[in-house]
Amino acid sequence: QVQLVESGGGLVQAGGSLRLSCAASGLTFSSYAMGSWFRQAPGKERESVATISWSGLSTGYSDSVKGRFTISRDNAKNTVYLQMNSLKPEDTAVYYCNVRSVRGEYNYWGQGTQVTVSS
Fold it and tell me: Based on the number of CB atoms within 10 Å of its own CB, is 95 exposed (0-12), middle (13-18) or buried (19 or more)?
């Protein structure tokens, strides 16, 4: 069975840091895989935060997190990470991991992990 498990969320003060992890099991990802982090705050739509190709050669970030967040991956561990620095209260949301194939053969989501940034 395919499963994505997020971890690393929690409560942190503004200006602090967290590292989120997304461990995938049940799949051996191809070179076409893309890993992403999305987030959704209460009453708001889910938005893309960061994306990385499985090769690690291509990354992209939303303007709101660029320069503060870094996405990375460890292919041997089938894990995608999101290093979150200089956190702001507006970063408070449930963060979701997504792993998908570029051409749509698969598209998996984790259950989400809560990140709360206090002022």
Answer: buried
Tell me the chain's radius of gyration from C-alpha atoms.
14
Helices then strands, each counted (H, E), the chain? 0, 11
Distance of alpha carbon 61 from alpha carbon 57, whole angstroms: 14
Closest listed residue to residue 46, CA positions, set 103, 119, 97, 104: 97
**What are the mean pLDDT values of the chain's consecutive 10-residue runs (119 residues total)?**
94 98 83 90 96 88 98 90 98 96 90 97
Strand duo 10-13 + 113-118: pairing? parallel
| Pair 70, 86: CB distance under 8 Å | no
Q: What pLDDT does residue 31 have? A: 66
Which pLDDT score, from 0 to 100, does residue 30 have? 66
